[in-house]
Amino acid sequence: MSALDTGLGADLTQLAYLLAAVGFILALKGLAGPRTARAGNLVGAGAAVLALVATFVYFPLDHKLLMIVAIAIGTAGGVLGAQRVQMTQMPQMVALFNGVGGGAAALVAILELNEMQPDPVSSVPRFVLVATAFTILVGAVSFSGSIITFAKLQELMTSRPVVFPGLPVVFGASLLASVAVAVLIILGSPTWIGVLLALLGLAVGVLLVLPVGGADVPIVISLLNAFTGLTVAAGGYVLSNVVLLVAGTLVGASGTFLTLLMAGAMGRSVANILFGALKGGSTLGAGEASDRPVRSAGPEDVAIMLGYAERVILVPGYGLAVAQAQHTLRECVEVLQARGIKTAYAIHPVAGRMPGHMNVLLAEAQVPYEQLIEMDDINDEFQHTDVVLVVGANDVVNPAARDTPSAPIYGMPILNADAAKQVVFLKRSMRPGFAGIENELLFMPETTLLFGDAKDSLSKLLAALKQL
Amino acid sequence: MSDGFVWLTIFVLSVFVGIEVISKVSSTLHTPLMSGANAIHGIILLGAVLVTGSSDDTAVLVVGLIAIVLAAVNLVGGFVVTDRMLQMFSRKKPAKRQEAGR
Questions:
Q1: Is residue A293, in this structure, part of any structural domain at all?
Q2: Three-class SS of residue A170?
Q3: With an 8 Å Cβ cutoff, is A247 touching chain B?
Q4: I want to staple A251 with a disulfide (CB 3.0 to 4.6 A). Which of A52, A68, A303, B41 is the partner?
Q5: Is pTM, for the whole model, over 0.90?
Q6: What is the rounded CA–CA span in Å between residue B47 and residue A27?
Q7: Mind listing the pLDDT tens digit for each residue in A88-97?
Q8: Cβ-based contacts of A134 with chain B (< 8 Å)
């Protein structure tokens, strides 16, 4: 390592690193509050730039030009990806960014192991080798796991849990092999053993995420995000770099905490999410469309139901965003409000593909923030509500989560849409939701279905409402 | 206090800080927070630069440059996508002209 040990340059670097570490703490604190979030994010970016510039200025580095070109390429790729992505596809973008970060950490650790050759044990303290092995293994897990979550969310592969006979055995075997190889590294090994560990880590990551079912994937992204944070922290220890240690640890700790919060919002344990499918398919749903009778109606009928109601609650789901119908929904609501009807949007904590995703999507459609009511605050209102309009949502209003202990989503808090006098579903088909289970609410006598693409249906509904 | 314990101390204190600063986050902000945290660990870019900048071997240089590209994607892309998300929360007055551009 070409670290500066003495002199003004070294002190200035350490000072810049300290400022950057404080910047990252302030960034996370800012991100946790609605008013300060955007500023917090910018503070984080500023801290990263400061640490990077200090490193370039004060360390005697070779290949500076090549490295700047590499940073420019990565920056261009990151900016392009971040600006092009549709807000509906944002969860998989975060997964992808997280994956490449984990991959970078694993590569850095392999290069460090290479630097310690030919005799790692006598060149560094033993615990540095532990941290090196940890970074290689977990970084690789995070990389391949994130790629699989990306593929699932982008629907490059099935979003259903993928389980094959013997998967637990293969998973266990590759995990054991990884630990064994990690021990070899701690005892002192050549670089290629590090590469082997990375390959095993890739396998573990794939096998870890394959059995996770659609609706749980966001929790896994959050978990892998925390993993990457911890690998960066371990990498910081290996490189004796305090910014990496502090930033990585912050993300690891807050990411783990956030994962538990999210799992709690879905009424699931993290262990159940990761290993539920292995234990006997509890996250496997029916997946088949039912042919039981339902009551369907046309847009004009629904317009009359809504137009003469006193209180209406909207329940938006991911299907709304996929159809890009947020704007049309907002226009419908504005017509209702003009008629003096009390309206509110009920936001389930995991509506969309990630906790808070629906707020982002509706904010994009300029729905005023005050009209978005969180689940706990609105659940008692449903019983005084005339019509609940469910657009592109399913699992978050499925009473099975409350009533059917055998259902995979049992225990997840839901919106009590079934307490309202009437429920209207806008649905493309009778296909079950992301969790793959049938929704009893669809078959209840107070429920009406309006089939069709959400945007198409809402446009017709809007026209019909204006006619009233 | 040995060097190892200094690092361990920083690590343990950072764990507490990390949990404390986000403990009161509302579920509305879970996604941007996750995305912002995701950007922060892109700082591994610093590690990639330090390792690559001291390489005297072509293979190491190539792997190091790959790590730099990946880390830069994580760092820059992460902050930009988080900003895009948060931009939508802060737009208080409905700006009609924005709609056509979407």
A1: no
A2: helix
A3: yes
A4: B41
A5: no
A6: 20
A7: 888 889 999 9
A8: none
